[in-house]
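User: Here's a structure from my thesis project, written as structure tokens. My advisor, Dr. K., wants to see whether a designed sequence matches the one we expressed. Can you design one independently, without my sequence as a hint?
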């Protein structure tokens, strides 16, 4: 029963399909907190995070040679994908919804003049976010459900080469799943036309969320042949997409996959109110202080020594002004006295 409990808590999986030698992912079964997945992406790109990450899965690596791109694909509806090539995988503890907005902000603040490629896309929700050169590269990318459906029935779509097995091109749920695979193919295809962007100095970020497999599981059931075929097709497509993105960046890209059966409900923020005073006391009955922030010592020393320096400067200036002889120490009085004598 205890083993089953741990499988229920850590059933989801974080996998690293491809990564350069400058980024070290250690092979081990260390659980990764779901809310720290963006921090793993940030640290692997060489950015700092607000709180330290005590997770042994990510090593230090080469600090002077960071990856040029991070690709994170989130697959909903399955807790594990059987990928063709064995990568490094870790169980996820407490899978909560996350976003890479903090990583995108760090890229913009440090490389604002070079306009890096930032693409965040969720095809099933018609949610897209493009910044920088991504607007130029992916201007022809299908993002709405209507565009995705039309894209599938074009001559150069994946339907002409992809074995559908038990899936049907006449079912809306199957078409949603296949359209997400089409998006993966089109991203790599469009980026291949702008290979020079993969060689510039600024790092790029790709965040994709796929929910088509989850819809197939709801429609046919997780024990159905459609779900099994879709899982196999998705795993092969993700591996192919990872290899293509890795090669486009000349082996200097990190490609990660997050397989989540279902996200846990995020923690809601409670507003302060006088009527909720008893509840706050219950949450913190021992009146403990806030969690220690490692920036506290730095900020404290900066403010302390700045105040001491300003105080000493005021004392020295005040002492010199108090003991100054206007006739000898001030050039203003000297010039004034000479002008009076000449007159």
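Assistant: Designed independently from the structure alone:
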């Amino acid at each position: 029963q205890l083993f089953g409990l741990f499988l229920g808590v850590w059933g989801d999986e974080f996998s690293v399909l491809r990564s350069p030698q400058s980024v070290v992912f250690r092979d081990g079964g260390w659980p990764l907190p779901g809310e720290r997945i963006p921090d793993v992406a940030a640290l692997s790109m060489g950015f700092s995070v607000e709180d330290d990450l005590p997770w042994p899965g990510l090593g230090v690596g080469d600090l002077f040679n960071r990856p040029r791109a991070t690709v994170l694909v989130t697959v909903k509806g399955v807790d594990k994908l059987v990928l063709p090539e064995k990568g490094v995988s870790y169980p996820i503890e407490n899978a909560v919804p996350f976003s890479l907005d903090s990583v995108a902000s760090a890229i913009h603040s440090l490389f604002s003049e070079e306009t890096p490629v930032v693409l965040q896309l969720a095809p099933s929700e018609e949610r897209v976010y493009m910044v920088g050169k991504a607007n130029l590269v992916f201007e022809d990318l299908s993002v709405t459900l209507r565009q995705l459906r039309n894209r599938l029935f074009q001559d150069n779509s994946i339907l002409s080469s992809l074995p559908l097995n038990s899936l049907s091109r006449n079912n809306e749920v199957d078409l949603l799943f296949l359209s997400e695979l089409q998006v993966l193919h089109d991203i790599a295809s469009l980026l291949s036309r702008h290979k020079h962007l993969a060689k510039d100095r600024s790092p790029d970020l790709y965040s994709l969320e796929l929910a088509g497999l989850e819809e197939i599981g709801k429609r046919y059931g997780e024990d159905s042949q459609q779900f099994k075929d879709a899982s196999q097709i998705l795993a092969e497509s993700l591996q192919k997409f990872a290899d293509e993105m890795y090669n486009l960046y000349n082996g200097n890209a990190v490609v990660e996959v997050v397989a989540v059966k279902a996200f846990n409900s995020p923690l809601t923020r409670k507003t302060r109110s006088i009527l909720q005073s008893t509840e706050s006391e219950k949450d913190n009955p021992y009146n403990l202080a806030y969690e220690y922030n490692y920036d506290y010592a730095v900020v404290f020393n900066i403010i302390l020594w700045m105040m001491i320096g300003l105080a000493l400067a005021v004392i020295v200036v005040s002492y010199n002004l108090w003991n100054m002889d206007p006739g000898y120490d001030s050039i203003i009085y000297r010039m004034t006295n000479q002008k009076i004598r000449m007159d």
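When you compare it with your expressed construct, this may help: The longest strand covers residues 69-76.
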